[in-house]
Amino acid sequence: MQTHIASRVLRTSDFATDAAKQIVAAGLEAISRNGVFRLGLAGGNTPKAVYSALAELTHDLPWNRIQITFGDERCVAQDHPDSNYRMAYEALLSRVPIPEGNIFRIRGEIDPAEAASEYEARLGSVAARFGETRYRHDLLLLGLGEDGHTASLFPGYPALDEQERNVIPTLGPKPPPQRITFTLPLINASKSVVFLVNDRTKEPVVQSALKGEYPSGKVAPSDGGVLWLLGHEACAP
Ligand code: 6PG
Question: Which of 174, 184, 186 to mutate to test the pocket of ligand 1 (most atoms within 8 A of CB)?
Answer without folding.
Answer: 174
